[in-house]
Every structure is written in structure tokens, then in C-alpha cells.
TrEMBL record:
Alphabetically ordered keywords of this record: Hydrolase, Protein phosphatase
Protein name in the entry: Phosphotyrosine protein phosphatase I domain-containing protein
InterPro entries for the chain: LMW_PTPase, Ptyr_pPase, Ptyr_pPase_sf, Tyr_phospatase_low_mol_wt
Domain of life of the organism encoding this protein: Bacteria
Stretches assigned to the Phosphotyrosine protein phosphatase I domain: 15-177
Homology family: Belongs to the low molecular weight phosphotyrosine protein phosphatase family.
Disordered: region residues: 136-162
Pfam family, one: LMWPc
Length: 188
């Protein structure tokens, strides 16, 4: 069952976002649940490249999410399926996950990038609303290395806090970008 349905048009506003990490129990659900609270009317999901299928969110990251006033109750991890890549914007937590997606599904290249490269996406839009065409342009560009979100799975509370803060900052930038609207036509 597909979560997203992308319009036939090559351009238009971004209406769906998919976050991808490895196990789908730490980073991607954190980003999914956080973005859902910040942008109304947006289809948001998360998946794992090697998901711990049907697991709850990892305790430390769920705690970090709770500190931000967001509950992880009811979340269950899911395996990434090809249909999930129909999202208008697919954001991975690492360059390795992006490479894996593109190796298996080259058609997703125009929609897939790293969450750590959201600042470049923000810069590329120049204050304009985010469209699928801008996402495609951004996904084809070269970006700085070293922007992976650290994996907090079975690591220290400090690592979880650092990952959570990094995701929080990037999701806030993404939310701002997604909430921009095209200027209205003048009334006659």
C-alpha cells in the first residue's frame, strides 16, 4: 500500500515528505513525528533501509521527542518499499542510505537528498516556496560532505541528544520552507 501519490505534473508544491534511516526506530521517526507537528496538511512518513519492523521508537530518542512536546505513542517501524519513494521529497539521514536508495531505485534520484543538506535547499529556493522542480534541482547538485545525522541507536544519551538537536534544527528549517506559499495573484 502506497502512502503517497504524486501528481502527474513535474512541478508543483511539495506535498509529501519521507524520512529514511537504517532501523526506523531513532532518527527518521523523530524527524517524521516532529515535522507532523510543524506543518499541517503535509503527508509525512518514515521508513528504514533495514527496519526493525513493528518496533516502537527507541527509548532515548522517544525521550528527546517528548522533551519537545511530541509523543511517539503508536509509532511502529516500517521497512522501506519502492512505493514509498513516490514522496515528493525523500530525506535520508546519511549519504550511505541515499546511495543505497539510488542504487536500488535510480528513478528516485530527482526526489532524494540528505536531511543534512536542507540548508542548501533553503538557500537554493531564495525565499520562494518549495516545489518539486526545486527539489529535483537540489538533488542533482553537489553538497558538502560530513552532514550525516549521527546514529544514536544503542549509544550514549549525549549522542541521542546531539542527534535530536541536529534533526530538530534541520526539521525547523524544512518546516519553514514547506510553509511558504506562492504569492497570490492581484485582485481585479
Amino acid at each position: 500500500m502506497t502512502v503517497f501519490s504524486t501528481p502527474a505534473s513535474a512541478d508543483g508544491p511539495v506535498r509529501s515528505v519521507l524520512f529514511v534511516c537504517t532501523g526506523n526506530v531513532c532518527r527518521s521517526p523523530f524527524a517524521e513525528l516532529l515535522l507532523r507537528t510543524q506543518v499541517a496538511g503535509l503527508a509525512v512518513a518514515s521508513r528504514g533501509t533495514y527496519a526493525l519492523v513493528d518496533s516502537e521508537m527507541e527509548q532515548q530518542m522517544a525521550g528527546q521527542l517528548s522533551l519537545r512536546g511530541v509523543s511517539s505513542a503508536g509509532f511502529r517501524s516500517r521497512q522501506l518499499e519502492i512505493e514509498d519513494l513516490e514522496a515528493d521529497l525523500v530525506l535520508t539521514m546519511s549519504d550511505r542510505q541515499r546511495a543505497l536508495i539510488l542504487e536500488e531505485n535510480p528513478a528516485a534520484a530527482r526526489r532524494t537528498g540528505q536531511l543534512g543538506h536542507v540548508p542548501e535547499l533553503l538557500s537554493l529556493t531564495g525565499g520562494a516556496p518549495l516545489t518539486r522542480e526545486r527539489v529535483a534541482d537540489w538533488s542533482r547538485r553537489s553538497h558538502p560532505a560530513g552532514r550525516n545525522v549521527p546514529d544514536p541507536y544503542r549509544r550514549s544519551p549525549e549522542t541521542a541528544a546531539r542527534s535530536a538537536q541536529m534533526i530538530d534544527d534541520l526539521v525547523a528549517q524544512l518546516a519553514d520552507l514547506l510553509q511558504r506559499r506562492a504569492p497570490e495573484a492581484p485582485r481585479r
